[in-house]
Write a structure and sequence with these properties.
CATH architecture: 3-Layer(aba) Sandwich
Number of helices: 9
Shape: globular
CATH class: Alpha Beta
Mean pLDDT: 93
Helix content: 40-55%
Order of helices and strands: EHEHEHEHEHHEHHHE
Structural class: alpha/beta
CATH superfamily: NAD(P)-binding Rossmann-like Domain
Strand content: 15-25%
Oligomer: single chain
Length: 239
């Protein structure tokens, strides 16, 4: 039977590429989405046409009820969860003094509370089945901070601490928990931010951007390793 992965925020960008790479590695793939139903279902159709096992599942990761429903659907289809990739995230740049409570709560709710909620739901299953691997997608902003990204940086920094605690708690159950910092990617979001893209190239010691395919393949390879946990893998060449 195929191994099973849930990729959150998988309708586009890095998430969609992750879904494709996991499918190519013979995983059954749950393509989670919140708003982009058409893109998620289109991706699943494409995967199925290539002979892969995949399903699109709507869930707002900040909503524990919807996350539980997603996990239950995956279990009803495939009976297990081998890998969870917490990729879903939102960003809304603004100076700290101009960041509203609503924006703060939305970013923290999706990027940090959403990761916590998904880990909690998946960990219960992984403990019962005797193991699994959870990979969280963070950002270099969570390490160094960025002007105009107080909420985003805080949410991504929180993922680092959450990863360490979860790894220590779940290790005895053979559940690995790691974090990946992908670097600046030319996804839909990255392409549209001209100034941020130029700054990323300037700050890179290689004077180039990160690669979506390399990042996705790294995550898939990491997910298949059973002896690594509590680590942060920085794929970002900015200093």
């Amino acid at each position: 039977m195929n191994r099973v992965v849930i990729v959150t925020g998988a309708s586009r960008g890095l998430g969609a590429r992750l879904a494709q790479c996991f499918a190519d590695a013979r995983f059954a793939v749950a393509v989670n989405y919140n708003e982009n139903k058409d893109r998620a279902e289109g991706l699943v159709r494409s995967l199925r046409e290539d002979g892969h096992d995949a399903v699109a599942i709507h869930a707002d990761v900040s909503n524990p009820v919807e996350v539980r429903s997603m996990v239950d659907m995956v279990l009803s289809l495939w009976g297990r969860i081998d890998v969870l990739v917490n990729n879903a995230g939102v960003v809304s740049d603004a100076l700290l003094v101009k960041t509203s409570n609503h924006v703060w709560e939305k970013i923290i709710g999706t990027n940090l509370s959403g990761v916590f909620t998904c880990i909690r739901a998946a960990a219960e299953i992984m403990i019962k089945q005797g193991g699994g691997h959870i990979i969280n997608i963070s950002s270099i902003s969570g390490v160094h901070g960025q002007v105009g990204q107080a909420a985003y940086a805080a949410s991504k920094a929180g993922i680092l601490g959450l990863t360490m605690s979860a790894a220590k708690e779940l290790g005895e159950y053979n559940v690995c928990v790691n974090t990946v910092l992908p670097g600046y990617l030319l996804t839909d979001m990255g392409i549209s931010a001209d100034k941020a893209r130029d700054r990323a190239i300037e700050r890179s010691v290689l004077h180039q951007l990160a690669d979506v395919d390399e990042t996705a393949h790294f995550v898939v390879n990491l997910a298949q390793m059973s002896g690594i946990s509590g680590q942060v893998f920085n794929l970002d060449s900015r200093v």
